[in-house]
């Protein structure tokens, strides 16, 4: 509406209500003859009489003009009428001629700039009646415009609501729909034209519960509010759960005139409830102990495995009471940390068993929201055997790496001695020594790579961490250049891109750059670049050297080695395993100038 804002209409309507209580209206005069202006001011002295100039004063209800004044303010009157639409802006012409003459003279202006004509001279009561009539038209139009604005506002509000809204005529047979909002159309798939005039039962189908339908019908027949959750069907035939609330609305006569229905699609919640019931059955049957604790550590739920493992047969007890003092202290420490930070934590805790046997459990504590309450879900997994295997492997690994390094150092030392013998020694000895030295160096490099890969892992930390990959690469650039003085190593990593990375990220970058430099010739160029996407971060190491051997590429791409196709080392395997350990990907790309190895890390 042009200049027909709800605020302006509201102000005008309030003034109109005031007028009906006897408060003055505003009447603007554009009368050039002083005597006529004076008479009109006296006649209308119970109203707020103002002078109209180049513009009609704000808040004007009626304008009164004479022929000369009309000619002077005609353009302003037209502008005023346009501003006031859809409300009426009445203009009365007062002129000294017969009514027929005036209608003939001003016919083209009637309806556009003028609304009524009053010949003068005329009785005062005739002039006053004409003005009061125009005021009445003005006031009624303001009320109508206000009602229209409110109806449009209500309709916009209902169409913008995130629930379906329908209105049925309670006075008509079979309660036909007379209105549905956009939310109803979106939820059901039906257009307004398809549903208006029909009873809302067309949404029912073969899966609709008759008892629920009966409960809904009984509430409507009793003309009382009723709410049900009913299985309905969209136009496509797809079933959905509909929470329907029906409210009767009275008319002016106090009788129920309409029923307003509010529809909410609660399919997701109903499906979740069914899943929760299924999950509870599953949780009861799983072999891992599961407990649900409230914020103060009180047990609210236990499954059968927890009852067997910890004797947690009854809810309402403190979780710490399930364990011996030392175990209880360790459990309370991790529980307090989860409660304070709101973050999931995992901790290995030894629980003493009967007969002096100890069991190691990996406790995972995770906060979850149930309604408006926060609960801590505890899942315990028996990792006793895994721990034992890890300890054995750790000892074996330490012995092998320690002895391997010592023996290889001895081999290298002796091979060096052979290679440094006087020139009169057979050339074959020197060649053998060089081969021994090269082989030993290779073995030593393999052992060193395994050591650096292992050292970069933090056994006490999480298997992954959030890292600004771009900043990490920029910080490593000087070290990489210094480690490879014969190569041109450059970082292309601007801005900030964060991803979930393995603790061995430094090892991965170093090994990829080493591999790229080793395949180069002369002064190889290596670029370490970082690019972010919506859900991942790519770390790319590109070189201008020889392509990676096809055998190695196929083995790495397949993720496995065969007797005929395998890599010459373990470094790239360690890089791949580290990346895949956090849900990332490893791939090799050929470029026009060399090879690019791409590591993709997930954002979350």
UniProtKB/TrEMBL annotation:
Segments for region (Disordered): 1-24
Domain Histidine kinase: 399-604
TM helices/strands, residue ranges: none
Keyword tags: Chromophore, Flavoprotein, FMN
Domain PAS as annotated: residue spans: 150-199, 275-311
Protein name: PAS domain S-box protein
SUPFAM superfamilies: ATPase domain of HSP90 chaperone/DNA topoisomerase II/histidine kinase (SSF55874), PYP-like sensor domain (PAS domain) (SSF55785)
SMART domains: PAC, PAS
Annotated ranges, domain PAC: 226-278
Alphabetical list of CDD domains matching this protein: PAS
Domain of life: Archaea
């Amino acid at each position: 509406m042009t200049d027909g804002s709800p605020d302006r209409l509201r102000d005008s309507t309030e003034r109109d209500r005031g007028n009906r209580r006897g408060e003055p209206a505003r009447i603007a005069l554009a009368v050039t003859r002083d005597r006529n202006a004076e008479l009109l001011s006296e006649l209308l002295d119970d109203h707020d009489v103002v002078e109209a100039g180049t513009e009609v004063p704000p808040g004007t209800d009626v304008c009164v003009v004479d022929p000369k004044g009309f000619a002077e303010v005609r353009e302003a009157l037209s502008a005023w009428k346009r501003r006031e639409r859809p409300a009426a802006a009445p203009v009365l012409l007062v002129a000294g001629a017969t009514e027929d003459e005036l209608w003939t003279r001003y016919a083209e202006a009637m309806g556009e700039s003028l609304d009524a004509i009053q010949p003068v001279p005329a009785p005062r009561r005739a002039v006053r009646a004409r003005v009061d009539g125009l005021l009445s038209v003005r006031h009624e139009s303001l009320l109508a415009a206000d009602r229209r604005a409110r109806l449009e506002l209500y309709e916009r509000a209902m169409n913008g609501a995130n629930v379906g809204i329908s209105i049925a005529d309670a006075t008509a047979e079979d309660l036909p729909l007379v209105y549905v909002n956009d939310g109803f159309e979106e939820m059901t798939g039906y257009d307004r034209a398809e549903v208006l005039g029909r009873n809302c039962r067309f949404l029912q189908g073969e899966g609709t519960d008759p008892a629920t339908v009966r409960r809904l019908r009984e509430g409507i027949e009793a003309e009382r509010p009723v709410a049900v959750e009913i299985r309905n069907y969209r136009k496509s035939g797809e079933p959905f759960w509909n929470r329907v609330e029906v409210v009767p609305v009275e008319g002016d006569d106090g009788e129920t005139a309409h029923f307003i229905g509010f529809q909410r699609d609660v399919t997701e919640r109903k499906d979740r409830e069914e899943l929760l019931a299924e999950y509870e059955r599953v949780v009861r049957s799983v072999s891992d102990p599961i407990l649900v604790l409230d914020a103060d550590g009180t047990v609210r739920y236990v499954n059968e495995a927890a009852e067997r493992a910890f004797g947690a047969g009854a809810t309402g007890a403190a979780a710490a009471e399930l364990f011996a003092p030392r175990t209880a202290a360790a459990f309370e420490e991790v529980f307090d940390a989860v409660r304070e930070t709101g973050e999931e934590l995992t901790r290995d805790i030894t629980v003493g068993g009967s007969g002096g046997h100890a069991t190691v459990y990996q406790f995972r504590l995770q906060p979850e929201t149930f309604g408006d309450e926060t609960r801590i879900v505890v899942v315990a997994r028996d990792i006793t055997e895994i721990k034992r295997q890890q300890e054995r492997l750790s000892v074996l690994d330490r012995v092998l790496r320690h002895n391997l390094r010592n023996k290889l150092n001895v081999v290298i030392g002796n091979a060096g001695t052979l290679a440094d013998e006087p020139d009169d020694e057979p050339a074959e000895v020197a060649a053998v020594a060089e081969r021994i030295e090269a082989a030993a160096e290779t073995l030593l490099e393999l052992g060193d790579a395994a050591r650096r890969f292992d050292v970069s892992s933090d056994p006490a930390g999480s298997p992954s961490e959030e890292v600004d990959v771009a900043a990490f690469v920029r910080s490593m650039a000087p070290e990489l250049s210094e480690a490879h003085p014969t190569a041109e190593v450059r970082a292309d990593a601007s801005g900030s891109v964060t991803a979930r990375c393995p603790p061995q990220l430094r090892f991965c970058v170093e090994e990829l750059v080493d591999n790229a430099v080793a395949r180069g010739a002369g002064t190889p160029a290596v670029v370490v670049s970082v690019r972010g996407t919506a859900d991942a971060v790519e770390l790319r190491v590109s070189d201008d050297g020889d392509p990676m051997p096809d055998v190695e590429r196929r083995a790495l791409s397949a993720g496995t080695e065969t007797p005929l196709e395998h890599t010459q080392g373990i470094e790239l395997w360690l890089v791949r395993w580290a990346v895949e350990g956090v849900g990332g990907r490893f791939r090799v790309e050929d470029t026009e100038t060399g090879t690019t190895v791409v590591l993709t890390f997930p954002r979350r």
